[in-house]
Design goal:
This protein is an all-alpha fold. It is built from 4 helices and no strands. The termini are far apart.
Length: 129
Amino acid sequence: MNTRLMGGLIIGLAILVVVGFTIYKIMTGHEVGFGEISTISILLMLFFPAITWGGEKEKDGILQNEELGIKISEQSSKISYYILVIVLLIAVFIDYSMNGTYNLLLVVILGIAMVLLPLVQFIVSRRYQ
């Protein structure tokens, strides 16, 4: 069994255990907090790269440092940036419709998110000039 499959299985099982425990907490009336949500997020953050990128030793897929791997990383980063900005925009409007006022922290984070990509592109372009 190759390393990629083994890592995906181990992390996948860990995700199932944490999600199962979180569902158990919800069913028993306990509060689900930062720990459960961040643990699930971290495990998912580890799971997807484990099943996406191949290893240099096994030669079993796309390598992250190859030309195709770099292109995939760049394109997925830009797509995920736009998805995140849209999700933040939706969160601001949902919060406004529920409370009748804008949550200043959410609006500030949305503003930073909207400016972040053009700012980083400007800084990186200055490095090459």
